[in-house]
Amino acid sequence: GTVSSGFTEIDGVDTATNAVAFGTTGTAEIADLDLASDGIANLTITFANSTIKDGAAEQLLVEGTTSSIALNTTASASNLTTAISSITWSVAVTRTGDASTGTTSVVFTNSSSPTEVTTAQAEALLDAIKYNNTSDTPTAGARTFQVTVSDGTAISSAATKSITVTAENDTPVISVVNVAGAITEGTTLSDSGSITFADLDLTDLPVASEATLSVSALKADETTVLTLTAAQLTDIEDAFSISNVDGNDNDGTVTWSYNIAETALDFLAKDEVVTAVFTITVDDGNGGTDTEDVTITLTGSNDAPVITQDTGDSIAAAITEADIALEADGTLSVEDLDTTNSVAVSVVSVAASQLDGSDDAMTSDSSQPDNEALLAMLTATTDPIDGTVTTGDIAWAFNSGSEAFNYLAAGEKLVLTYTLTASDGTASDDQTVTITITGTNDAPVITQENGDSIAAAITEGTTLSDSGSITFADLDLTDSPVASEATLSVSALKAGGTTDLTLTAAQQADIEAAFSITNVATNTNNGEVTWSYSIAEAALDFLAKDEVVTAVFTITVNDAKGGTDTEDVTITLTGTNDAPTVSSAITSAKAEGDASYQIDL
């Protein structure tokens, strides 16, 4: 009769697990043999060559041996040792005819003496023989085998063994080529690689797809989780793509690429890391899949904070000197793209330049405050940028305190250029804030210092001169005030001090002309003016005893820029008694005879 069995291909590496035994239920029976004796000389398995479709992949296995018998070959395999009944079998493979019309016989013979074996030993051999097909793509269909035994003379009737081969879908298998990418912010922001796959089913055409498996982020300490926004996650995931290479068949290549914009990673601070894992799935469309993970590591670098001038911000202020503390303020904007960075702002330097009224550079005077004092006049504070926000405002304020910058003359300018630095501890950005102070004219001020004098008293008949000085100071360092004088008033009183004494024009002219001033040659913005009064004795002879002339002269110091100061110098002239003087001849004539005499007194 015919015994049918099924052989089903195994997906993956063949391990002969599905090999089909020739025995019906694992125990073959050889009965009703019309043989001359009970001894069996050989066992033969015969099949048509045309039924072997898969070449050397179709084979017979014998339990207890490590060898196999290819069903498409004529080569003999000898001394296949099996533990069954301690029989050593030799195998001869004989092919007749061609591959399409011939037959092949596989003859098992006991290689020991005596050569005949018992029926039980032959049955044990038949149980040990199995059909196997190692092809990953076996040809489906029936394989029919005829089994006979012989006592050396007569051959038994044939038992038919039909084995139906069924092909199973083979899952495509991915071979790893390059499944890791590393990108550091601020450098090349792309990477690529590939995987290869193989599908044993020759007619399969696997196609790859990708999906995000996971995205995780850690701060620089490598332990603290960095929370990503939905937008950040989207940018990171969208940067990954794959391409099924043209020309792929059952075997092929899938390329992957990762390309992300610099701005998408700006939120990462130095040494912060995002690990994105993407799964590539190769699917043969018949239920077979294989997957491979591609891991992309994104490492942050430090982004320097950036100071900008947004709408409403200011980086300059103009102040006019006003003899009081000068003040100005404004704002700037600062941004640090690294989400976890903290930013601090400081005023780090100041450069001072002084310009004249034509905006030409001029030498700064020693009265200008030193850099330390100027630096302290500007302060800057910022809104917190401390790991929760990335933008903030810088508020700056200028306050000169007790310094009024009075030394600046009209139109002169002091330009103070301050440098503000925003730093995240690693990188920084600078921004200048310019304060321009324009001077106004400060009038010179006359003072009476030690040794100065603004009054004189002259008494007729004694020393008829006197002198003195006044001191002036002009806060505008480049001013050079000049003094002039003018008569303010001349008055005269008779003795007793109540009755006016009227002066002649000549007398008044002499009194006024006696006053003069001198501008000291070494004067600068500060200096001294000397005055002197010197009058002739004859010019005061008209004054009787205790008559007094008071002459007041005004000294004006003028800086030629509209600033003046005045000081009055008072000269008091006191008369003394002048004895009468005979200034004409008294003539006495006496006639005596013809002679006359004259006496002059």
Architecture blueprint of SSEs:
Elements: E1 2-8, E2 20-21, E3 42-48, E4 58-62, E5 68-70, E6 80-81, E7 88-96, E8 103-110, H1 119-128, E9 129-133, E10 141-150, E11 159-166, E12 173-176, E13 180-184, E14 190-198, E15 207-218, H2 230-238, E16 240-244, E17 251-259, E18 273-283, E19 289-299, E20 306-308, E21 316-320, E22 327-335, E23 342-355, E24 361-362, H3 371-376, E25 378-382, E26 385-386, E27 391-399, E28 413-423, E29 428-438, E30 445-447, E31 455-459, E32 465-473, E33 482-493, H4 505-513, E34 515-519, E35 526-534, E36 548-558, E37 564-574
Parallel strand pairs: 1-11, 13-19, 21-29, 31-37
Antiparallel strand pairs: 2-9, 3-8, 3-10, 4-5, 4-9, 6-7, 7-8, 10-11, 12-14, 14-17, 15-18, 16-17, 18-19, 20-22, 22-27, 23-24, 23-26, 23-28, 25-27, 28-29, 30-32, 32-35, 33-36, 34-35, 36-37
InterPro entries: VCBS_dom
Protein name: Tandem-95 repeat protein
Organism: Chlorobium phaeovibrioides
Notes on the protein architecture:
This protein is mainly beta and 601 residues long. It has 4 domains: 2-166, no CATH class; 173-300, Sandwich (Immunoglobulin-like), CATH 2.60.40; 306-439, Immunoglobulin-like (Sandwich); 445-575, Immunoglobulin-like. It has 4 helices and 37 strands. A hairpin with a 5-residue loop joins strand 18 and strand 19 (289-299). The model is unreliable at 32-36, 585-593 and 595-601 (pLDDT under 50). This is Tandem-95 repeat protein. Pfam families: Big_9.
Strand content: 35-45%
Portion in helices = under 10%
Distance N to C terminus: 203 Å
Provide the spatial order of strands within the biggest beta sheet: 1-11-10-3-8-7-6
* Structural class assignment: mainly beta
Mean pLDDT across the residues is: 83
Shape descriptor reads rod-shaped
Largest sheet: 7 strands, mixed
Number of helices: 4
Total domains: 4
Instruction: Using the CA coordinates, give the radius of gyration.
Output: 63 Å
